[in-house]
Amino acid sequence: SGLSQEAGSVEQLSLHCAEGSLEWLYPTGALRLRLAPRLPPTSAAVKGGSPPHVTACIKPSGTFRGAQLYLERDGVLELLLPEAPRPRARCFSWLPQEKVALFLQATPQPDISRRIAAFRYELRGDWLARPALPAASAEGACRPCNDTEILMAICTSDFVIRGSIRSVSNDAELQESIIGVSATRIHRQKFPLFQAGGRAGRAAGSIR
Fold it and tell me: In which family does this protein belong, per the annotation (predicted)?
């Protein structure tokens, strides 16, 4: 909580977990988050190949307010998440010998109303990505996703499954489409959206 910090102060923290979340209530001053994940050695590192990249994806909460998030690399700050309605998820990568950090800085506010700067992060090794990618590039273009965009979708989505669409219906009252999905494999899901009980023991669920 920023209530225990003084204006203009910078609190130092280290993120050692490969994934997690941070919630900063009443942002005041700044937080410097050193990225030091304990990742297993990659095949490239074991065989003496080229140094692998470490990739991070940051997904802000829908109520991200009161601060801005920067990427600090070699003493230079690059804005990742502005204080704006519905900020987009961002991904970036670095080499293990590089020193990088996240700099979460409180923004001046006219009152003391409740604000929360919260986001979820995931760190992975041996994945290539260009620095500080926006959540969507070349908007409007219809093309296959590249490796970086697929990585970002995996890191920031509420669920990742392999399966097939079995039905599509329309809810006229709610004015939304309902997609019935049969999942053959669930890689991850934030909420129990897909549950076993379908045909041949497959998990099934609906997406709105």
Answer: Belongs to the meteorin family.
191 — pLDDT class (breaks 50, 70, 90): confident
- Domain ranges within the chain, ordered by starting residue: 2-156, 159-207
More confident call, 200 vs 128:
200
d(CA 207, CA 202): 16
| Identity of the highest mean pLDDT range in 71-75, 134-138, 199-203 | 71-75
What Å distances lie between residue 181 and 86, 169, 172, 176, 198, CA to CA? 27, 12, 20, 16, 10
**Spatial contact of 63 and 83, defined as CB atoms under 8 Å apart:** no
Tell whether the model's pLDDT for residue 140 goes beyond 90. no
The neighbour count for residue 34, using CB atoms within 10 Å, is 14
Residues 13-39 have pLDDT tens digits of 888 888 888 898 888 889 999 887 766
Query: Which of these, 97, 100, 83, lies nearest to 35 by C-alpha position?
Result: 100
| CB-based contacts of 187-195 (< 8 A; 24+ apart in sequence) | 187/154, 187/160, 187/161, 187/162, 188/159, 188/160, 189/158, 189/159, 189/160, 189/161, 190/158, 190/159, 191/158, 191/159, 193/158, 193/159, 194/159, 194/161
